[in-house]
Amino acid sequence: GGLTGPNLLCAGRAPVVITPPQSVHNVTGAQVYLSCEVRAVPAPVVTWRKVTRSPAGNQATEDLPGDHVNIAVHVRGGPSDHEVTAWVLISPLRKEDEGLYQCYSANALGEAQSHGTVTVVDRSQHGAPRFPAPADRL
């Protein structure tokens, strides 16, 4: 028989999201990150995707970092056994980076996903006076 025995199968666990990404907001030009902690046996592969919705209402996902020079993805094992923590870092933040970010994890036994939202406030509109104050002209 080519069976490896039932014990190996029993030890496996499909991915479970331990800590889902928190939704964040910041001004343009700032730095934000989302993190996602997943537990699975064997350790899962974790990827980040940006979810975009077309004007027609179709949903599309884009694997990150893709061709975005301002987005970095970092994945490492831990903090404990069979856990993986993944981050997506956006710096500098641009208005078009706003949206839904999906942490997607998978191993041979299954998959899990969770989402965090990035909201971007335009710095020029953030806390600026409605009318130019006289001091602005100095």
UniProtKB/TrEMBL annotation:
Name of a matching Pfam family: Ig_3
GO biological process: regulation of cell growth; regulation of signal transduction
Family matches, as InterPro entries: Ig-like_dom, Ig-like_dom_sf, Ig-like_fold, Ig_sub, Ig_sub2, IGFBP_rP_mac25
GO cellular component terms attached to this protein's record: extracellular space
Residues of the Ig-like domain: 15-119
PROSITE patterns membership: IG_LIKE
Name of the protein: Ig-like domain-containing protein
Naturally occurring in which organism (per UniProt): Muntiacus reevesi (Reeves' muntjac)
